[in-house]
Amino acid sequence: MGGIPTARNGPSRFHSNCQSELFYQAWIPSRPQLIVVGLHGAGQHSGWFGPLATHLVSQRMALYALDLRGFGRSSGLRGHVDRFENYLEDVDRFIHGIRSQLPSLPIILLGHSFGGTVAIRYAQERSTPIQALVVSAPALRIRLVIPPALDALIATISRIAPMTSIDVTGWSRVFFRDPPNHAIDTFQKVSQRDPWNTTRFSVRWLTELLINGTQALRRASQLRIPVLSFCSEDDALVDPWAVHQFYRALMGCHSQHLAFCQRPHDWILHDNGKDPLYAYVVQWIKTQSLP
Question: How many folded domains does the chain comprise?
């Protein structure tokens, strides 16, 4: 445990600031060619990247996966953030810490769902050392239906009692269009077996995610690095049309968007390496970052 991430395999921690101690895991091959930094989805943690890490290591790619504050084994109230900027500060310190340990290797930032929104906002707001961005089903717009009166109430609670939390497994049938019962039920079952998952999120966290998803979409044209985005057309949790709009707004000629059908929201985290998605992602990353 220390002030910056270390260049060694396994779990560890670092201090983002004097109040925050963040957990991360690293999978590093003997002679890595590049580094992938992974940001998990809502309620998840770095351990979800295990299958992807195994495949990346076989391709001489190191993976550093961070438990964002309030999730997994990092410090902070479960499923809560005071402001989205806190995530960007944590990711910035994490990436610069990795860069100080492995200064010669290209860095690719990969974010899934909520982590995809964090990754995009980070690339928009920071002058970063990352060479490219990969986003899997980024939560730019969630399949939520919030009545105007309830929306106003949520905004008020976010101001006066921001740590008020709700369990999404109990409210999915109220908030989601065409309730994603299977996705929510599956995550609830996994969470019951995994003590590092959470299904509770604060009202402030929800409002910050919605605001920053909108900002990420509106400011897509500001990105000046290659971006690979992908999402299932029938994703149960995020709006795939928003992901497509994001891609269309990108200005970089090396960006790419992949649309699939009948794939789970967490596909990138469960592919066993036999599916063409992993091979495509690896080849795209190598094309963008290696000579």
Answer: 1
